[in-house]
Amino acid sequence: MKRGILFLFAALYGWTTFGAAEIVPIAEKAMGQSLAGADLNNDSLYSNPAGSAFSELYSIEGSYYGSGAFSASILDTQTSSLGGGIGYYRFPVKGTDNLNQGMKISVLGRITESLGWGVAGKLLWGTDESNQKQNLKDLDVGVIYSVPTVQFGGFFRNILGGRPGYLNQDREVVVGGRINYEQTLFLSVAANTKLEGFNPYQIGVGAEYLSPYNFLLRVGFRALLDESLSFWSAGVGVDSGRMGIHYALEIPNQGSAPLEHMLSINLML
After folding, report:
1. Nearest alpha-carbon partner for 187 in 138, 221, 212, 156
2. DSSP letter string over 119-149?
3. By the 8 A CB rule, do 8 and 264 touch?
4. pTM confidence score
5. Buried b (16+ CB within 10 A) or exposed e, 199-210
6. Which of 31, 41, 222, 248 is most buried, by CB atoms within 10 Å?
7. Digit-coded pLDDT (tens) for 59-108
8. How far apart are CA 142 and CA 36, in angstroms?
9. If we measure between CA atoms, which residue out of 25, 43, 30, 24 comes closest to residue 207?
10. What is the C-alpha separation between 146 and 186, in angstroms, rounded?
11. Distance between CA atoms of residues 99 and 125, nearest Å
12. CA torsion sign, 53 to 58 to 62 to 63?
């Protein structure tokens, strides 16, 4: 892939809350957060840190979500066999005017032509919903297996212990898989589980269609099993390789949950 710089400008409108300490990228949002086992680019900082092990690019990403929330990251998997990324993000604390901020640094590579690994260190600081100052230093570790038609992956979030009382930062395992038909139709599934009992608390499924004319369509569904909440999601986009426009919508099945819209524009130079 030719060297390029990706600038992503995103606007989020409607009603949004951040119940966890991670930015959810637009593709994850549109596909029911089911991409733990998929090839990713900058999104790997906020999902499986091994997800960009099979990419070859240099990219700069920035996203604005409204209400003071945004993220920015740099990913380089092109200049050497050992790739790396760095990201910064901030978002409002649910129900308050306070902000939480975070930084992530990742290192990733390939063990074989089909097996990749990644480690992401995180630093998170701010306040919780009771206005108490909090901070977290931890690591996420992931692996991914990728062949032309199938990917499988998983990652261990907060291996040093996390902080369950601070923005749901538990120790947990996320696993998933993705299969495609002729690089046109993609199906994915993922499950999140806490370490205690290994009972999934979230399951997500998604589908993506990429037309020969660079038009794409995404749909997804995710369920929070412990909370009896579920969400439908969808997204559309056009991506020529040099410019892309993407939209995602998440619709709660319960009336009290917020409706989320995301719109992004990206340029490759």
Report:
1. 221
2. EEEEEEEEE-TTS-EEEEEEEEEEEEEE-SS
3. yes
4. 0.85
5. ebbbbbbbbbeb
6. 31
7. 888 777 767 778 888 899 988 889 999 999 988 876 667 788 999 999 99
8. 9
9. 30
10. 14
11. 9
12. negative
Rounded Cα gap, residues 127 and 133, in angstroms: 4
Q: What are phi and psi of 42, to 5 degrees?
A: -60, -25
Largest CA distance in the chain: 51
| Phi and psi torsions of 49, nearest 5° | -65, -15
Q: How many other C-beta atoms are found inside a 10 Å radius of the C-beta of residue 225?
A: 15
| H or E segment to which residue 268 belongs | strand 260-268
Phi, psi at 41, each rounded to 5°:
-110, -115
Residue 233 exposed, middle or buried by CB count within 10 Å (0-12, 13-18, 19+): buried
Instruction: Report residue 179 as tokens.
Output: 């299969």
Specify whether the CB–CB gap between 44 and 50 falls below 8 A. yes
**DSSP string for residues in 46-81:** GS-TTTTTT---EEEEEEEEETTEEEEEEEE-SSSS
Closest C-alpha to 68, from 125, 124, 16: 16
Do 1 and 78 contact (CB within 8 A), yes or no? yes
Q: Tens digits of per-residue pLDDT, 152-206?
A: 999 999 999 988 878 788 899 999 999 999 999 999 999 999 887 678 999 999 9
Higher-scoring residue by pLDDT: 8, 180: 180
Q: For the beta carbon of residue 161, count every other beta carbon within 10 angstroms.
A: 11
Tell me 254's DSSP state: S
Coil/strand/helix, residue 32:
coil
Other C-beta atoms lying within 10 Å of the C-beta of residue 163: 20
Task: Please check whether residue 200 is in contact with residue 34, taking contact to mean a CB–CB distance below 8 angstroms.
Answer: no
Q: Report the alpha-carbon distance of residue 102 to residue 160 in Å, rounded.
A: 17
Distance CA 242, CA 22 (A): 27
